[in-house]
Design brief:
The chain has 591 residues and is mostly helical. The chain is built from 23 helices and no strands. Helix 5 (98-108) runs parallel beside helix 18, helix 13 (280-296) packs parallel to helix 15 (330-353) and helix 19 packs across helix 21 (534-553). It comes from Mycena rosella (Pink bonnet).
């Protein structure tokens, strides 16, 4: 071969841009056939976007990397599907948008164990890092990460010294009025009302520790401690709602006021006291006040007060789990339960009123209540673990299970009943975000239902009246959640023109019938004990059946069973109104 021919061949090789190695083969120093044998074998996509002498990161190189990443993701996804024995999904299946992915992960993590608190999550407290004092205010001062106090603390920690704990300079005008002159009920009546409160209300929320409370009353602590005195008055006011004693309706109170108003009206909440921080008694008072107003008047007042109470609880860090090298004390457990009660009422009332929640769930870093009944707390007072005897159903199981269901409700209110601004964010890169979230909520509700303790499963023949009441309240709230998740997709009230792929109306009807069935059985067995959070659930169930009847009436087919169920719903609400006057407006709207 001559040198001329050799030069010609070299020139021809250099001038064959279509036969050069593709980007992947070029980096692997493989042959330049077209298409590449390696790419055919590994099902890669041949690209010629990278220059032969790229000296920087060009847009074509970035695009090449993205193509490679997409290919690898597709291969990994196909390998996972084959390994799990699932039929490969079509390539056109849409992927979840980023917002849907985040919400899905949040819903699926609800049942995970509670993570241990980190020192950065606790916040700046006062020098006293112990439990919340019953008597002395100001034992806790919470300030979060963004506060200037935490910034100063970080600087001081870097220096290696301790900051001085300066006492608060209280101004003379901040002092409150003299101690109130409480008018307590007679001792025998007070004992009866305390018992009614614990038998009918505390079994649902576990706010107070019965042995401690009754011992404090027997020791006349209410005559010496204003905090306990105010809490006692509210307990008596709530117990009066279940009492038939004529003394709960004295002639001195305004006509038409609910039972127990004479004691409720004396309560002084800490929100009016500028010179002190809240104590445990103050947090309990806000919980009790919310419960009384929720039963006797418009829920709007309860919603406002519980929001104030949660802000006060934040002031002392009650919404954050505390770092501790010892076991939790009874006072710390009661503080935790007081916050969870307010969190629960805030979510439930916000759902009933269609309003915003005061504090978002991701801002709360607090463990669930300890599932230990009051009578087994004696060991805890001796610095031992809270311990429920094995194979002994706990009364607190209802409260803990209700809180988990409340977490799902919290997510639903945030994302399914959001504003247009939130909806626009959720719809980013995912037009089917609503349908996908409904599937996740249904899955979360199914998992929650499977986690309900055995003694709280619905059983109309349950031998325990207390567990029957708890089970009925739990299941009615569960059916209400089913309705709430699918209600936006009922065709008659759906805002969009796109039909829902789910039989939402049928799902809501089934849940409504089940809710009314449970409420009616509980009412027949316990006619004087209205369902906790049952009014909104039963009322919503009645409205759903009415929608179904009105839609069926157009076609001339009105289900007789639904008409009877609506009448049973009205009967239940009418009976609730006797004990809880706040049921009246719901009853009038349904009738």
């Amino acid at each position: 071969m001559s040198s001329e021919d050799n030069g010609s061949n070299v020139a021809n090789v250099r001038n064959r841009p279509t036969h050069r190695a593709c980007d992947i083969c070029h980096r692997r120093k493989r042959d330049g056939l077209e298409p590449c044998g390696t790419c055919i074998q590994r099902e890669f996509k041949c690209t010629y976007e990278q220059g032969a002498r790229a000296t920087g990161i060009s847009s074509s190189y970035v695009q090449c990397l993205e193509n490679r990443l997409e290919t690898v993701e597709m291969l990994l996804r196909d390998a996972t599907i084959r390994a799990e024995g699932i039929d490969a999904a079509p390539a056109s299946t849409p992927r979840n948008g980023p917002a849907v992915e985040i919400i899905t992960l949040g819903l699926r993590s609800l049942n995970r164990p509670f993570p241990a608190p980190h020192k950065d999550d606790v916040g700046l407290l006062g020098e006293n890092m112990g439990s919340l004092s019953l008597n002395s205010p100001g034992s806790h001062v919470f300030q979060g990460k963004s506060s200037s106090a935490m910034f100063v603390k970080a600087a001081v920690d870097l220096k290696g010294s301790r900051p001085s704990n300066q006492p608060r300079n209280i101004k003379p005008w901040e002092f409150v009025t003299p101690r109130p002159n409480y008018d307590f009920p007679e001792d025998d009546l007070a004992i009866a009302l305390i018992s009614l409160y614990f038998d009918n209300i505390n079994i649902f929320f576990s706010l107070l520790h019965r042995p401690t409370f009754e011992s404090a009353f027997a020791a006349t602590l209410h005559l010496r401690n204003d905090g306990f005195g105010g809490t006692l008055l509210l307990v008596c006011a709530l117990g009066a709602l279940y009492s038939d004693d004529p003394r709960v309706h004295p002639a001195a109170v305004p006509s038409g006021s609910p039972a127990g108003w004479r004691w409720f009206s004396q309560a002084v909440l800490v929100g009016h006291q500028l010179s002190s921080q809240p104590t445990l008694y103050d947090l309990q008072s806000y919980c009790l006040t919310t419960q009384f107003l929720e039963r006797t008047s418009s829920p709007r007042a309860s919603w406002t007060l519980v929001g104030i109470g949660m802000r006060l609880a934040q002031d002392i860090g009650a919404h954050r789990e505390k770092l501790r090298t010892r076991m939790i004390t009874p006072e710390e457990e009661l503080e935790k339960r007081a916050y969870w009660v307010m969190f629960l009422f805030d979510t439930q009332l916000s759902a009933a009123l269609g309003r915003s929640i005061a504090i978002q769930m991701h801002d709360v870093n607090l463990a669930s209540p300890v599932r230990c009944d009051d009578q087994y707390w004696a060991a805890s007072l001796c610095n031992a673990e809270f311990c429920q005897p094995p194979n002994t159903p706990s009364v607190v199981d209802f409260f803990a299970s209700f809180l988990k269901l409340n977490d799902i409700l919290h997510f639903a209110l945030k994302f399914l009943y959001s504003t247009n601004r939130m909806s626009t964010t959720l719809a980013t890169d995912d037009e089917l975000w609503q349908e996908k979230l409904v599937m996740e909520f249904d899955s979360a509700l199914n998992k929650w239902f499977d986690s309900v303790p055995a003694h709280l499963r619905w059983d109309p023949a349950c031998p325990s009246d207390m567990f029957l009441d708890q089970s009925a309240a739990l299941h009615c709230s569960y059916y209400f959640m089913r309705i709430l998740v699918h209600r936006p997709f009922i065709p008659a009230i759906q805002s969009s023109d796109t039909p829902s792929p789910y039989p939402s109306l049928s799902i809501c009807n089934t849940a409504a019938r089940a809710c009314i069935h449970v409420a009616e059985i509980q009412h027949r067995r316990r006619p004087n004990n209205p369902l906790v959070f049952g009014q909104t659930a039963v009322f919503t169930a009645g409205i759903v059946l009415l929608l179904n009847m009105w839609g069926s009436n157009r076609t001339g087919r009105v289900p007789d069973t639904d008409l009877l169920a609506v009448h049973r719903c009205i009967d239940v609400l009418r009976a609730h109104k006797i004990r809880w006057p706040s049921t009246g407006p719901l009853l009038y709207r349904l009738v």
